[in-house]
Design brief:
This protein starts with a helix and ends with a helix. It is built from 13 helices and no strands. By secondary structure, it is mostly helical. 34% of the residues are buried. Helix content is 80%, strand content 0%.
Length: 264
């Protein structure tokens, strides 16, 4: 599950080191080419709000499979786009269909004993963060060697393999919710209204993710210009630095758990 999570969430970030290459092919300003990065994130937000709650109403494995297959289609559209407008549409669709990690997390939590849930979720979140950060390194090298379209073709192949792996390995998880889709969406606002800790955590994550996205996206434009003039492969290497922190997360969680047990 952690591997699937990392490989699918990577779809959201492959485009970032490729902005300059895309701008050169379509002969548009780099700032305009950068719109695909926020269209991908906007699609992700749409998918989180409208599609993730469906996991409480329909069988999760089926939803994960259908969404993964839709990601493959979106990646193929991006790889074959003959105009920047089509690439923008594909980026939006790719964001919408890359919400699979947020379907895997509740599936894993529901299958885990309460005393192991924190460790399991932490492991999957590590896979998520590693996928986010190393996706830039991979796409930077692929883009430099074979062009930006190759990265989307490779990603489509990866997602197709993931589809078959999920079909074979993931357990069926039948939903318990019997209400309507409208009630599911309404419950989101009810939770925000009645749970102050959830409101606080939501705001913290909003600002953290905004800072994260602003840094990694604008960094590409900065490093590709003067005085650096780095190519996409060099820019992608910066993802390795970030991934080292994600790799350390399970160790930190283990040390914290040990300290708490000793204090008790």
């Amino acid at each position: 599950m952690a591997v699937c999570t990392g490989l699918i969430v990577a779809n959201l970030y492959y485009c970032q080191p490729l902005i300059v290459l895309i701008a050169n092919e379509f002969k548009i300003p780099e700032a305009n080419a950068g719109t695909i990065t926020y269209l991908t994130q906007a699609g992700y937000a749409i998918g989180l709000f409208f599609m993730v709650p469906l996991g409480d109403k329909i069988e999760r494995k089926k939803q994960i499979l259908m969404t993964t297959l839709a990601s493959v289609i979106a990646l193929i559209i991006a790889a074959t786009a003959q105009s920047f407008f089509i690439l923008q549409i594909a980026s939006l669709l790719l964001g919408i269909t890359s919400i699979v990690p947020q379907l895997i997390l509740p599936l894993a939590a529901s299958l885990t004993a309460p005393e192991q849930r924190g460790k399991v979720v932490g492991t999957i979140m590590s896979g998520l963060l590693i996928g986010i950060l190393l996706s830039r390194t991979l796409s930077g090298f692929i883009g430099q060697l074979w062009g930006w379209r190759s990265m989307f073709w490779i990603a489509a192949g990866i997602c197709l393999l993931i589809f078959f792996a999920i079909q074979r390995k993931f357990p069926v998880n039948k939903p318990q919710f019997q209400g309507s889709y409208g009630q599911l969406i309404q419950s989101l606002f009810t939770l925000i209204k009645t749970q102050p800790v959830l409101r606080e955590a939501t705001l913290i994550n909003v600002f953290c993710f905004a800072q994260f996205g602003a840094f990694w996206t604008t960094m590409v434009l900065l490093l590709s210009g003067e005085p650096f003039s780095f190519n996409s492969a060099t820019i992608g290497l910066f993802g390795i630095v970030g991934a080292s922190g994600a790799l350390a997360a399970p160790l930190v969680e283990k040390w914290e758990t040990k300290e708490i047990q000793e204090l008790q």
